[in-house]
Amino acid sequence: MQFKRTAFLAATAAVSVLGLTACSGGMDTPPAASSSAQAPSSAAPMTTSATMASGEFGSACASVPKDGPGSFSGMAKDPVATAASNNPALSTLVTAVTKAKLGDTLNTAKDITVFAPANGAFDKIPKADLDKVLADNATLTKILTYHVVPKRLTPADLASGNFETLQKGMVKTSGSGSSFKVNDANVVCGNVQTANATVYIIDGVLMPS
Hints:
Blueprint lengths: L1 H19 L10 H8 L4 H9 L20 H4 L4 H6 L5 H9 L3 H6 L3 E6 L1 H5 L3 H8 L2 H9 L2 E2 L10 E5 L5 E7 L2 E4 L2 E9 L3 E6 L7
Parallel strand pairs: 1-7
Antiparallel strand pairs: 1-2, 3-4, 4-5, 5-6, 6-7
């Protein structure tokens, strides 16, 4: 009996540690959205621990802060738009989401996947073209919602898949191990968890047909 009790306590402690090491990725930071999304904190570790089998991966993950709101554990506490706003590598995406007024939409969505272009992805677009898109709300919304799949995708799901986006277009994923592509873009930091989303940071901006 003493051995069984000791084993049960050890297993319980291990599960608790895994729940606390949750990882995550926001963009728009409306106070109401941020505070409301943090309320169901007890549910976030359960969702995260279920998708954390492989952990975060990719060369760009090394630049994520080790602690604070922009760290993996910090982002896991916030909804995706708020979490991205705390990640300096996603500042251009945050600007785009804010202009399109999609922050609340992303923050209140349940169990989504966001393919988040890093700043360098936007740098590949000529400035004049980028400024034109940022000024056209309809086009900007189509592009941004093309980066969102209405369910959480694990790395295993990305091995060979076709997924419908919020924009209603399809994205194609492929790869294995720690090397994955979304259409023609590479995942540079993947399996990042937020309170309501799984984020894959990519090196290109996805364009709908």
